Amino acid sequence: MMQIEQLSKSYGSSTALSDISIEVRDDEYVTLLGPSGSGKSTLLRIIAGLEKPDSGRVLLNGTDITSQPAHLRGLGIVQQSYALFPHLSVYDNIAFGLRFRKNSPVTDENLVKNAVTEIMNLVGLGGLENRSVGAISGGQKQRVSLARTLVTEPKICLLDEPLGALDANLRSSMTTELRRIRDSLGVAFLHVTGNETEALSMGDRTIVLDAGHAISFAKPDTLFDFPDTVRAAKILNAYNIFHGTASDKSFQFGDLKLPLPFETPNISFYAVRYDEFNIVSSSSPDALMHVNYLTQEFTGSSVTYFVEANQQIIEVVSHISTSDPIQYTLGEKLGLRWSSNRVLLYDANGALINQGKQNNEK
Amino acid sequence: MALFLVLPLAMMVYVSFWTQTTFAISSDLTLKSWKTFFASDTYFGALTRTLKIWLIVLAVTFALGYPAALFIGRYVKDKTTQTILLVACVIPFWTSFLIRVLAWRPMLGKEGAINIVLQKFGLIEQPIEVLLFTELSVIVGMVQIYVVFMVGPIAFMLARIDDSLIEAARDLGASSYTIFRRIIFPLSLPGVVVGAIFVSVMVLGEFATAAALSGRKVNLLGNIIVTQVGSLKWAFAAVVGVILTLVMALVITALLRLVNLRKEL
User: Fold this and answer.
1) How many CA atoms lie within 13 A of A329 on its CB side?
2) pLDDT by residue (tens digit) across A295-322?
3) Interface test with B, best of A42, A45, A52, A85 (most B CBs within 10 A)
4) Which residues of A fall below an 8 Å CB-CB distance to B?
5) How far is Cα A94 from Cα A84, in angstroms, rounded to an integer?
6) Residue spans in chain A of domains classed CATH 2.40.50.140
7) Do A102 and B183 touch (CB under 8 A)?
8) What are the C-alpha distances in Å from A9 to residues A35, A44, A51, A158, A285?
9) Residue burial A18-32, b: 16+ Cβ < 10 Å; e: rest
10) DSSP line for A80-113
11) Does an H or E element contain A283, and which?
12) Distance between CA A287 and CA A105 in Å, rounded?
């Protein structure tokens, strides 16, 4: 188990991490979601010992390792750039840690061979032993980098945007692969990503990092359905967030009045998930808000319509299974309909107000 | 290339078999010049001495140049400082080659700077005489002049090594020494080979440093060519020229064998 206590780090006047406390249990897949610049890579580098925190501690199974040099920590980091040794073959790259580590290196080449062969088969690299790392594909490089770390049996495997440099197809197959590999090894993974789909689909637990603060800790489904802060909702990239105030039983967004599920005075943010909206004609009595059509984007299984109200762009996701895509013209007046019971409300500090109510309904 | 490289080379080989008399040269083919070279201690000794001094200079420029390159290429993180330091290495080239060589005379001489300083501090009673006009002074001069050709290519290769490789190796548990031995040094090898080729080609053909700092006591192959050409012994100069060219070709081939430059650069 790894605990991170009140970790802070700044570069000059810019704060990279501020008072981060998180915990990674054994045999757990934790994803760390954050936009670029949120300090997620810095956090990983501090855990690995590649950088020193300004304050705070990193504990591994109860032992303080904050000041321990990186090569004695027994943690493994898989870097986004893969960082493969260009002068070594695939086999020698993977064997590097076993052969040359300071703590108990493996001197028996037969043992090295067994371990390397086993891990290569696990990550699906069998038969590529003698290839030069310059002569393999991006997905294979990613696997070599992962295998090179995993073969050393790290206590925790840290992944720094491991799928960032892969194309969409490879990314989705590696997503399943990573989970399978982790399950078969039973090592805790801490996976940093800027991609919300990746974070939600892979993690047993997801931590949301924003501007150096850890702002949410939850299971992916809870996080997605009820992001506990408005910043988290924004980072999830699945919510239309309206900023306004409450006024007589409704939410005042510009000159629009949005219905509230219950009466509450201290609301600053009103969030509706992209797929909770339905487009209706502007004359329909069901229309709760009037908008102007901008454009649409077809993604295969769904269509995203972009509409605008009060200079704010609103995204509406409609799944192909529920309705066929409809072509509108630019500037066409449309109405939006949604269930006021499904909206999320946040106070001025960005904290979720109606979580309890939502849970009761479920 | 055929006109300016192959033809002159072929001509040199051809001339080395011409018949040389005291005042004239004729194109009757003979092995006489070749036999003279290998039979004479003076000339064959020059070959072995050239090889010996080349090896020592190569080893010393590497031993001094590598740490300097390591400092510039890896410990100086700032690119501007790196460039400034590399430019500083070539500042001596702003003065003429001969002046740089001759400047060693007042340094190493019997009443030179080194002897005066050592005597002043009472470290020695008598001036050290072997400092100047010996093989040592030739080696010192050559090392000073050519070490920068070793530093440049190595520093360039070292600066190109991505920091993430070092971090990855450290994360995999390797100590600093292991990282140097297994990652940094192998990756800088192309630079070492390029530097060694520069130094080798220049040292093997060198004659001016030897002439100026040895008091004409240390004769290298280059010096022999100069004197033979000076006395119009074209055939014999051609023999030495052919031998020198062969030695250089062998050295470069051997160095290129060490590392596949086309792949690494």
Assistant:
1) 1
2) 989 888 888 999 988 889 989 898 888 8
3) A85
4) 48-50, 69-72, 74-77, 79, 81, 83-87, 96-97, 100-103, 105, 148-149, 152
5) 9
6) 239-361
7) no
8) 18, 12, 9, 19, 54
9) bebebebeeebbbbb
10) TT----TTSBHHHHHHHHHHH-SSS----HHHHH
11) none
12) 69
- A102 CB neighbours in chain B (<8 A) are 173-175, 178
Between CA B42 and CA A40 the distance in angstroms is 72
Is the CB of residue B175 less than 8 Å away from at least one CB of chain A? yes
How distant is the Cα of A245 from the closest Cα of chain B, in angstroms? Answer: 49
Encode pLDDT of A95-141 as tens digits: 999 999 998 899 999 999 999 999 998 888 888 999 999 899 888 99
**Residue B157 forms part of a structural domain:** yes
CATH match of A2-225 with 3.40.50.300 = yes
Residues of A in contact with B164 (CB under 8 A): 79, 81, 83
Please indicate if any CB of chain A lies within 8 Å of the CB of B171: yes
- Domain A239-361: homologous superfamily in CATH: Nucleic acid-binding proteins (2.40.50.140)
Nearest 10 degrees: Cα torsion A244, A249, A250, A254: -50
What is the phi/psi pair of residue A36, to 5°? -65, 140
Domain extent at residue B260: 30-78+135-264
The alpha-carbon gap from A94 to the nearest alpha carbon of chain B, in Å, equals: 10
